[in-house]
Amino acid sequence: MSFDVERVRADFPILSTKVNGRPLVYLDSGASAQKPRVVIDAITRAYEGEYANVHRGLHYLSNLATEKYERVRAIIARFLNAPHEDEVIFTSGATEGINLVSYAWAAPRFQPGDEIVLSVLEHHANIVPWHFLRERQGVVLKWVEPEPDGSLPPEKVLAAVGPRTRLIALTHMSNVTGTVVDVGAVARGTDVPVLADGSQASVHMPVDVASLGVDFYAITGHKLYGPSGSGAMWISRARQAEMRPFLGGGDMIRTVTRETVDYAEPPLRYEAGTPSIVNQIGLGVALEYLMGLGMENVAAHERDLRDYARDRLRSLNWLSVQGDAADKGAIFSMTMQGAHAHDISTILDKRGIAVRAGTHCAMPLLEFFGVPATARASFAMYNTRAEVDALIDGLTFCRELFA
Known about the structure:
Layout: H1 5-10, E1 18-19, E2 22-23, E3 25-26, H2 37-49, H3 60-80, E4 88-91, H4 94-106, E5 115-119, H5 128-137, E6 140-144, H6 154-159, E7 165-171, H7 183-188, E8 194-197, H8 201-204, H9 209-212, E9 216-220, E10 231-235, H10 237-240, E11 253-256, E12 261-263, H11 277-293, H12 295-314, E13 319-322, E14 331-336, H13 341-350, E15 353-354, E16 356-358, H14 363-369, E17 374-378, H15 385-402
Parallel strand pairs: 3-15, 5-6, 5-7, 7-8, 8-9
Antiparallel strand pairs: 1-2, 4-10, 9-10, 11-12, 13-14, 14-17, 16-17
């Protein structure tokens, strides 16, 4: 199937919006992607005629909601090529998923002086949970810096692994630079468990957890064209067997008495309470939409956008792009001498162009680059070359204002 970007754009109602009298150019999908009509309709339908709590009722609506909710587990497993659907644990997003691993798997196993290897590319969601273990249990965080171009060679990560290393936690794609990290090569190069934050990578390219060989893989729904509050953590059966329960409450138990509690089998063991039913249903619809387009087709379209945007941005000799590695997604973080990132974002917004400005929840990486903030343009499958041109025109206008 060929990729028709105009047909895809027609599926996203918000893209016909005008901002400040100009057509919306949405270049902030790295923060949160827009939603196609099929997802919006599925959410509306679920609330209007299919809603009830799951797992606990024997009536028609509860059974219907349970069926629609639970089938999403199989959809996610197919999307990630997971060996078993019971390895998919529903979460509210990657942040909860990584915290789940920190609390349920790492905390009871790690001793003072044990090490976690992290890269400076990480989002705070893959940093702060490990700081908790540093503060509370004396775990040592061992940092690996990227190359000046933002790339992170697997051998550099593996060189940081020592006899006390208990976990390697890496982004699969940087949310700041788009750098793709070969987490599979890292996993194949060591016996140490590997956690991959797939918040960005899963949106932009095919992901096959079976071939990657990692132990944990996080995805978040709101970046995958699904609702916020949806997501999943893929955890291999072997690692699930080593985990303790995370949250206590309904659904994660078999029986409770005054003296004892008997926990449910995974994955329900790690899914306490009434879940985000409709949001997860919406995520399932979003993933089916993506798989219908074909992730290889999505990746090819975005590579074209990346290459076109890279060439055009490089022609602006007064603009600096942080971390422009060869293997990267269509994400560009930029600085301009004399203009703060917030100024750039505000001026672009006046022209209908939405970009993000700030530290992008990646303060260690911006410190590495020596900049306080960047303006980030993050492209998605619904963006076009014409929107790259609009960005270039907007940046040129910014330059003229601050020259």
